[in-house]
Request: fold
Amino acid sequence: MLLDIHRQLIDNGQGQVADYIPALASVDPSHFGLAIVATEGDIHSCGDADVPFTIQSVSKPFTLALVLEQFGEETYERVGTEPSGEAFNSIHLTADGKPFNPMINAGAIAMCGLMHDRYGDEAFDEIRRGYDRFAGSELGFDEDVYQSEISTAHSNRAIAHLMCHGNILSENVDGIVDLYTRQCSLTATATQLATMAATLANVGTNPVTHDSILSPVTVRDVLSLMFTCGMYDYAGKWAVEVGLPAKSGVSGDVLAVVNRQIGIGLYSPPLDDHGNSVRAIKSCIRLTEELGLHAFEFSNQGSSLLSVYLR
Ligand code: GLU
Reply:
């Protein structure tokens, strides 16, 4: 199944690699990795599933998860839960001065603000350790991407200053933007991404290591926000066409969750006009159509028969 999808899409030359920083512009556009991890723990992958890439915005749901675990309802004093209808890096806040949701930059920076207030200089290690547990293995870090991003992070700094003005963030704007930029510069493979997704699918317990990380309430909130806000300005159409909680990043990665069944991780750098990976979106559409994975598909009965089809 995965091999068929890979074969069908490998020659698709549509889309453009992100080029706002040289370190991303120089990635190999032919890389294409797909991986699925089932909640029973079995791993299926093909193509460049072991090639690392910076996770970028796919970090957002995971820092949200760590924040929700530690801060509970207090989290929502710093961030809203509404789709913004605007670009991911929009500087626009809600009428009460909050970021619209945690899946856009403003919201993700606000989440980093909570972690930074609690852990100070240790915040990045705390976040990184959390991600490693979701993945069941250590993520890497791309120093080149980090350096390029931090030296050009003007709009993220502007958003952060605005939130500092509105008391959503504490004074330490530079430290908080640095933390956000570092989490975006962590690297993972499609297989690691699929395991992180499978931890969400498996209600917060990593199905490979059996490490119990998140409470069911945190997972419910994270998946809800991924479902409504996770795919940039394509979120609504994605909900109709694919129907899965998901998050994509500017490096060309996509993570999707089939609740209680599987985690999906994909990587292919060329992006469409919405900033989503062309091959990853097409792969998800095919997977959901053929396996009936859409959350509201009448044939999606949470069957473990899925494993049979994936082989
Ligand atoms: N590092 C990127 C930024 O904050 C992440 C963008 C993304 O993946 O959407 O601009």
Notes: The chain has a mean pLDDT of 94. The two ends are 7 Å apart (CA to CA).
